[in-house]
TrEMBL record:
Gene3D superfamilies: ABC transporter involved in vitamin B12 uptake, BtuC. The chain crosses the membrane at residues 46-66, 72-93, 105-125, 145-178, 190-207, 241-260, 280-309, 351-369. It is found in: Cell membrane. This is Iron chelate uptake ABC transporter family permease subunit. It is a multi-pass membrane protein. GO terms for molecular function: transmembrane transporter activity. SUPFAM superfamilies: ABC transporter involved in vitamin B12 uptake, BtuC (SSF81345). The keyword Isomerase does not apply.
Length: 375
């Protein structure tokens, strides 16, 4: 039998099937092309954002070198920096040179390093624990450093001793948290967080006790001011002490940024991709703790940077840790540097930087927990 147009039914069916397959293949090709274009656009946008953040870091650094109660012109700053490489006839005063290299430059470098480290640690912890409201002090590193610094002040140690005690106490605190969580049963990540919260509460009580027994004429004020966080009095020695652990931790986090992407999918998904989630998580926690401890040891407690900055970075570059982590580093560096400029220039008496970061971070935290879109 033939159809109305004289075409056999079997041939008509084959023609229809072929046409359907051709249309399906064409649709698949269109979808694949659209996906490639979207991926290409995302990569281009991420590159533009990272370049813009890098330019912001450079611009804020150059501006900070010249800002202060004793202004230094761009020519003088450039001349002093160039004099390190090639001999330049000085057209600046000896006082300006001392101020530039012994006070302003170490402070700016430390602000960049600390901001970069806290933001990177916050982003890494948020991905590792799959919780967008986690901050670098979730495991008690900050409170441990605070207790170590308070004990060092009670013992009458100098600036280096205080920083060393704070760093060691922060590391020991996190090791204790991991030891306790390894002996507990249940969800491992939940147990780690709970152990960190409990340890932080215990150390906070210990810090309160040190303030109670401190000499109110000098020790109490020193402890209180340290707890506020500040870059005042940053010295080349502080920079030298903190730079090595910060650099080591940041390099580890940067190298593992694609594995943090896998951790956000869960342990089962990581296992199917051949990644030992438990081992990677321990390494990430160690690196993030290292940079957090080094940061808090030399600046005191500066909160909110590790919580707020990764969210700002997600808003502009997305959740891919291959781009999110470097974006958080750059944004954290420029953010803390700009806030420090405000802290030292806004009033005649310098504002502790921890107060300013709290003024910015707390309202943003309220926005995060009240916005309609899920975190």
């Amino acid at each position: 039998m033939r159809g109305a147009e004289g075409v056999p039914p079997r041939r008509a069916d084959e023609t229809a099937r072929n046409a359907t397959c051709d249309a399906s293949r064409e649709t698949s090709r269109d979808d694949a092309h659209a996906a490639r274009c979207a991926s290409r656009n995302q990569r281009r946008r991420a590159t533009i954002v990272l370049v813009a953040l890098g330019v912001l870091v450079i611009a804020s650094t150059l501006a900070s070198l010249m800002l202060g109660r004793f202004p230094i012109t761009p020519a003088e700053a450039g001349g002093m920096l160039a004099n390190l490489v090639v001999p330049v006839e000085p057209f600046w005063t000896a006082q300006q040179e001392t101020l530039f290299f012994q006070v302003r430059l170490p402070r700016i470098a430390l602000a960049l390093l600390v901001g970069c480290s806290l933001a990177a640690a916050g982003a890494a912890f948020q991905g590792t624990f799959q919780n967008p409201l986690v901050s670098p002090d979730i495991l008690g590193a900050s409170q441990g450093a605070a207790f170590g610094a308070a004990v060092a002040i009670l013992l009458g140690l100098g600036a280096f001793g205080i920083s060393a005690f704070a760093f060691a106490a922060a590391i020991v605190t996190v090791l204790l948290v991991l030891l306790v969580s390894s002996r507990a049963k249940g969800n491992h990540m939940m147990v780690v967080v709970l152990a960190g919260v409990m340890m932080s509460s215990l150390l906070q009580a210990a810090v309160s006790y040190t303030k109670l027994i401190a000499d109110p004429t000098d020790q109490l004020a020193a402890i209180t001011y340290w707890l506020m966080g500040s870059l005042t009095g940053a010295k080349p020695a502080d920079l030298a002490m903190a730079a090595a652990p910060m650099a080591a931790g940041l390099l580890i986090l940067f190298a593992l940024r694609w594995r943090i992407n896998i951790l956000t999918m869960g342990d089962d998904e990581a296992s199917t991709m051949g990644v030992n989630a438990q081992r990677v998580r321990i390494v990430v926690i160690f690196a993030a703790t290292l940079v957090t401890a080094a940061s808090v040891a030399v600046t005191g407690m500066i909160g909110w940077v590790g919580l707020v900055i990764p969210h700002f970075a997600r808003m502009v570059i997305g959740c891919d840790y291959r781009k999110l982590l470097p974006a958080s580093m750059l944004m954290g560096a420029s953010f803390l540097l700009i806030v420090d400029d405000v802290a030292r220039l806004a009033t005649t008496s310098e504002i502790p930087i921890g107060i300013l970061t709290a003024f910015i971070g707390a309202p943003f935290f309220l926005y995060l927990i009240t916005r309609k879109k899920q975190l």
